[in-house]
Write a structure and sequence with these properties.
Blueprint (H helix, E strand, L loop, with lengths): L10 H7 L5 H12 L6 E2 L2 E2 L2 H14 L1 E2 L3 E3 L4 H9 L12 E3 L2 H15 L5
Antiparallel strand pairs: 1-2, 3-4, 4-5
């Protein structure tokens, strides 16, 4: 075992090891990761998670690389829902990207074109 520091343990373990651990920072970070997508209402409006999922899927198309991998720096709740719908592989892994299924790849392109493109002039 390594005694020189927290290897492969993450930022919070590193901060604790360096004596810089701030439990208030952890609480703020955990709250910010869950908000606003984990709440049913936002500023008095009901959220349509299907629309959010479609937008996230379209953004995954925007970040495609290696044919079907996309960067997963998006809302975790939406990524979990897309996984439950069978459109992407399990996002809960160490990779910085997710793999789109065949159906996910098709729908991601469709959502990208629908939400983020203009008709050609």
């Amino acid at each position: 075992k390594h005694q020189n520091g927290p290897h492969h343990a993450g930022r919070f373990a590193f901060e604790a090891w360096r004596g810089q651990f701030d439990p208030h920072h952890v609480a703020r970070r955990c709250r910010s990761r869950q908000a606003p997508s984990s709440r049913a209402k936002l500023h008095g409006m009901e959220m349509d998670t299907d629309k959010i999922d479609n937008a996230v899927l379209g953004l995954l198309w925007l970040t495609l690389h290696e044919e079907r991998r996309a960067w997963k720096g998006l809302d975790w709740d939406a990524l979990d829902r897309l996984h439950q719908k069978g459109l992407i592989g399990n996002p809960a892994n160490k990779a910085k990207s997710v793999v789109l299924t065949d159906e996910g790849l098709r729908r991601a392109e469709e959502m990208f074109r629908t939400l983020f493109t203009r008709p050609a002039s």
